[in-house]
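Methods — Computational structure assignment.
A single polypeptide chain was analysed. Its primary sequence is given first, followed by the predicted tertiary structure written as C-alpha cells.
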Amino acid sequence: YRKIEDPEHREILQLLKNLVKDSISQIREISNNLTPNVIEKYGLVAAINSEIDSIKLIVPVSFEHHIDNERFDSKIEISIYRIIKELLNNTKKYAEAENVEITINKSSKLIFITYYDNGIGFNLKMKLKTGDLGMGLLNIESRVKAMRGKFFMKSDPSKGFMFSMEIPINSKIVR
C-alpha cells in the first residue's frame, strides 16, 4: 500500500472503509436473520433470550417457558423465533409499553405461545376491517398459517396488545 498524502483522498478512503465495514455488519445481520445461528446451536429458548437482551433496556420483558431445552423441527423453531422477534419489534416501535410478557408452554401435541404488552394498543377491529394490518402482522399471520397453527390477537386503544398462538409440534411447514 502506498501512503496517501492528499487529505481529500484520505477522507474518501476513510469513507469507503466505513462503508465496507457497515456493509459487512449489515450482511452479518441479514444472514443471522435468515438462519439465526443461536437457534441452530442452542435452541429456541436461547434465541428468544438473545432477542430479549437486545430490547430489555427499552422495555422490560418477562419470559417464562416450560419447554426447557427441548428441540423442535428447525423450521418451526425459526418461524416461532421470527414471530416473537416481529412482536418485540412492533412493541419497541409503536407500543410505548412499560413491560412485555412472553410465555411458552407445550402439551404432547401443541406448542402454546402468549405475548402481551401493556402499551398504547390500537384499534384492531378497524385495522382488520380496513385491511390495514401492516406487513409485520401480516407476516406473523402467514407464518402461523404455514405451520398449520391457530392464533388470536386482541388490542384496543390504551389497553395494550395480546397475541396467542398454538402450533402443532410435528407440523410440516406449508408454503
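Note: The chain is about 50% helix and 20% strand.
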